[in-house]
Inverse folding.
DNA sequence: ACCTGAACACCGTTCAAGT
DNA sequence: ACCTGAACACCGTTCAAGT
């Protein structure tokens, strides 16, 4: 005789994500998730294989949100303007919730096929814009990697308080972005 | 009557670092360290305040090594050549031991004064080169931040297998580097 | 001064038993 | 079909006791 489910995969992921966003990945304990879901920790194994699977689901969700934000917040007509607004949106996404941002690209989970797919999905908006900008075919990939590397490195350092020498961080971002965007003008 | 020390802070850090380099931060357990040091886990607290203090010492050691490598492997006469060789050395340092690289800049430990100091120390070589290159005073800081952000982001993505679309990763690195170095030519 | 065993609270995970 | 309590191995950490 089936016991009615007290929770669901969707619920669990939402709870887990809230924990990660609020306090980082270490806060994602099965005890904390179970308590908020109104069940006992062992019951989580009826919904997910293990803790790593829950964290993976959170990461994928974040990557999907990132993709949506990048598309939604891209403005302008000129290619460089559009990419600049996308870069600004990327940075805003990271700054708005540092723990959430750090959850993605964490570890080398890129070997997992589902994570892989979600990463490509979230990188697509930039790729699309560069192609649309009329960049030479052979140059699109290295240029998009340059851009993503800069964005990822910059926001990681920013949210990690790695920019310590004072100065204007807005200016630093604008400088790096401008140097790269020069390739589109 | 004093018990002779079986180990030392230096020993412990070396053991901890070997564990981190071999298998990542999670492998740095007090049990594993104590076993290799020939003592019991509680005895570690006579040498370090807690696990975090051991990890911090490892991070600082890695940052000092990075500084040394950057200075030692910088070649050439022209400013752009020197910075390019330094960037290549940076990338080699990360690729040679991904877990070691990931240990630095991890979390937002930049608030800790000793980590702060070690980070600045390891960033100094690049800063020095940019100044030496005759960059305008006001431009040195944003330019060095652009460079570090690109390097950090790029090597993190590379060692995390984030570059998934095939293509030549060497070319991508050269492209990004060249775009930034154009500012020095 | 340094090391130890015993203990504590927590963690992820397994599993037989409940409904 | 889903949930549970009990159990296990592990983790970091504390502390009184040893030398």
């Amino acid at each position: 005789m089936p016991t009615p489910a007290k929770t669901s995969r969707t619920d669990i992921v939402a709870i887990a994500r809230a924990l990660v966003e609020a306090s980082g990945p270490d806060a994602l304990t099965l005890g904390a998730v179970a308590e908020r879901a109104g069940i006992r920790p062992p019951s989580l194994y009826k919904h997910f294989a293990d803790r790593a699977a829950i964290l993976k689901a959170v990461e994928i969700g974040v990557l999907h949100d990132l993709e949506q934000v990048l598309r939604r917040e891209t403005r302008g007509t000129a290619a460089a303007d559009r990419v600049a607004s996308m870069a600004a949106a990327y940075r805003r996404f990271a700054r708005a919730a540092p723990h959430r941002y750090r959850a993605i690209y964490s570890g080398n989970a890129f070997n997992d096929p589902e994570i892989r797919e979600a990463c490509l999905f979230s990188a697509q908006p930039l790729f699309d814009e560069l192609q649309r900008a009329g960049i030479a075919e052979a140059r699109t990939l290295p240029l998009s990697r340059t851009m993503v590397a800069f964005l990822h490195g910059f926001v990681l350092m920013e949210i990690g308080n790695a920019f310590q020498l004072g100065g204007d961080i807005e200016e630093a971002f604008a400088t790096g972005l401008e140097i790269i965007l020069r390739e589109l003008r």
User: Anything to note?
Assistant: The domain at 60-184 of chain A is CATH 1.10.357.10 (Tetracycline Repressor; domain 2). Residues 126 and 134 of chain A are 13 Å apart (CA to CA). Chain A has eight helices and no strands.
